[in-house]
Amino acid sequence: KFRKDLLSKRDPHKPCITLCSGTACHATHSEKIAGAIEQEIEKQGLKAEVDFRRTGCHGFCEKGPIVVIYPEEICYLQVTAEDIAEIISQTLKQKKVVDRLLYVDPATGEKATLESDIPFYKHQERLVFSFNTRIDPKSIEDYLAVGGYQALAKALFEMTPEQVIGEVKAANLRGRGGAGFPAGIKWEAARKTPGDLKYVIVNCDEGDPGAYMDRSLMEGNPHSVLEGLMIGAYAIGSREGYVYIRQEYPLAVENLTMALRQAEDYGLLGDDILGSGFDFNVKVHRGAGAFVCGEETSLLRSLEGKPGEPRARPPYPAVQGLWGKPTNINNVETWANVPLIINKGSAAFTSIGTEGSKGTKIFSLVGKVNNTGLVEVPMGVTLRDIIYKIGGGIPGGKRFKAVQTGGPSGGCIPEQYLDIKVDFDELKKVGAIMGSGGMIVMDEDTCMVDVAKYFLNFLTGESCGKCSPCREGIRQMLKILTKISEGKGREGDIELLEELGQTTRDASLCALGGTAPNPVLNTIRYFRDEYEAHIKEKRCPAFVCKELISYTIDPEKCQACLSCLRKCPSEAIAGGKNRIHVIDQDKCVKCGTCFEVCPSRFGAVKKISGEPVPPPIPEEARIIVRERKKK
Fold this sequence. Notes:
38% helix; 4-stranded mixed sheet; alpha/beta
């Protein structure tokens, strides 16, 4: 009845301006744009005729801030505050499109007016992420208007806890946090464990470099996560829940805190929810940003006020978790899927995806790809479709080299597996993991030794140090990788890395150490030739490892334009007007500035690796540019 009353006061045909207001768009001045929209609506006398809604992340982050005008769904990209007056006067008043703010396909030059016509969105299937672009995360009324908390009411009044668990099991919902363990089985174990006090927890400690799926969901639609959590609590028999969220996510904390307060005000949280007799309360805990706390036993210790270190399992948290009580932990995206399953049924959920992986998955698509941002696709879509149809391919026409999935503990998948289906099981077959959904695209200019070193460096700092296989294994692998990248690698280093990786993987206490060797083992598996080039030839094929690169100036192409000489930060370039320039290799810090500033029409500065540096040009032979020009 309340929802009907709410909808009766809303006109679906009334123009509505939505502005993405996630963290990425905050960084590009969405606050200023919001102020401009409110002022311009008032100025042009449209306050009663137009709604304005600040929404969560739209996903196409590199093109933000994004403004979408409903019901037509006209989409404007990279909007500034100065564009607002024109948008309102042209689009809302005169029904004209502001052509210069539309999406332009870089390949064809064609423009797209509607959001759904933009390739980035067109090839997605947004279920969990669908309301991020339409509702104000600070408004519970917006969430209720699109069917929010309907699944909770259905679970409380039409289903037993056992039926809820049965529906989640039938849907084969697998944890979206990385491990892919069936959520229904975890729930069932927690319910069957005796105990008057049980806990449910949202893991929002997303720490993978470049990944921000959970943050954007919590910022843009916190009520969907809370609703899933409450349904899980009812099914398990829990009266108390926690949201463990990163301190670095202030906007997510702000929107979540408001959502909790609003849910309490509406009788959707607290004692006797909706008159059902079910009591449930939620507390927010801010994590200090330790990557290891994404592992569930480390997270539990952190919640208890102890150092974030893993413990041996069994017993599993479902049996002995927070303060020794039965506990169920799922990540943000997993909880957000629960209302969809309860509302539409397990059959609808399992109609999407592959045999072993059902539903959709949100990925953070970043790196050397034209369209970066958050994408939601059905399980089973190919890597090629994600990278080329949604991502728009590799910038500058360069060759695709690999895509790294699964965060710092994931693996790099080479070009030969571009047509592999993306699901939990298929990715494992090629030595990668899905993880929480990070997806970093790499092109021909990427050094795979450097990639492995980057992730090992991250994991060295994030290892809690509790067990020696992880603490020392990662550190020793990083030392060897560093020597290889500096041209100090030796025969046998590759085999030593493989042995260390396997030992670390097999002997570590938790998943961080167990998966930490993946970047090394995986890149050796598919890009062994690059390791061998670094070790045997002292050469970096991608020209990335600084110690293996030298810069030199081709005397036949040097025009003595002084560009490189003036910009060199170490004053390593000798020369002058009409004098061919020369780089002093002893002074050169290999920053690459000379290579970047040399005019492309000359192309005089060369980058070399694994080759001898040409000897310096004699002083008397350098003053030849004037004579060359005369000829």
